[in-house]
Amino acid sequence: ALEIDPAHEMSQRLWGVLLDRQGRPEEGLQHLQEAIKIHSDYKSALETLQIATDIANRTGDPLNKIEAINLKGVILHDANQGKAAYDCYKLGYDMAREAQIQRGLMISAMHCGMYFKELNETTSALSYFTEAFPIAEELKDTNSIFPCCINMGTLYERTKDNEKALVQYRRAFALNGEN
Question: In angstroms, rounded to a whole number, what is the distance separating the alpha carbons of residues 53 and 157?
Fold first, then answer.
């Protein structure tokens, strides 16, 4: 049986391509997304992203396309191209809203929220996180609920609304205790 080193970018990338060629594009995309997360340099991340985007487009699943667009935003953010990253997140957000894809809307809204949080644009950041939060709850996605709560707590602190901040932190820590 073949084994891959999960911490090695090229292993994840090759495994993703192999799974796609075996007719398992969804599984392949998961490995390509992991390769992008652990990329060692900007160029290899973009090469892997192009492969993932091609597969996502072939699957015809709009969520795969939205996730690929958001991954491109993450890579651009890592390369200190914040505005270009936001453009990707916003494109994914608009696509998800139009197609009514809740998971895509949540992912894109969280990325948009982080973009505005980094710019200290608290009102805009809160708007996106408060939109993402109920979707994460509905999907029972604790990996998204927790960061929504922490980020909203931080943002409410910035506005000196300590009661709302405390509510969010309590939600996050209650969740953390469940996991």
Answer: 38
- The rounded distance, in Å, linking the Cα atoms of 33 and 88 is 16
Residues 6+ apart with CB under 8 A from 88: 69, 70, 72, 73, 76
AA letter at 110: M
Backbone phi, psi, residue 141, to 5°? -95, 85
Tokens of 56: 């996502």
- CA neighbor of 15 nearest in space, from 55, 46, 69: 55
Q: Say if CB 123 and CB 131 are below 8 A apart.
A: no
Long-range (24+ apart) CB contacts under 8 A made by 121-130 are 122/155, 122/158, 122/159, 125/151, 125/155, 126/152, 126/155, 126/156, 126/159, 129/155
| pLDDT, tens digit (0-9, with 9 covering 90-100), for 12-70 | 777 787 777 888 888 888 888 888 777 767 777 777 778 888 888 888 889 988 988 99
Question: Counting every residue, how long is the chain?
Answer: 179
Q: Which two tokens stand for residue 2?
A: 């073949």
Nearest-angstrom CA–CA distance, 78 and 82: 8
As given in the structure block, the two tokens for residue 49 are 């992203």
**Cα gap 148→154, rounded to integer Å:** 10
- Dihedral in degrees, nearest 10, Cα atoms 116, 117, 121, 122: 130
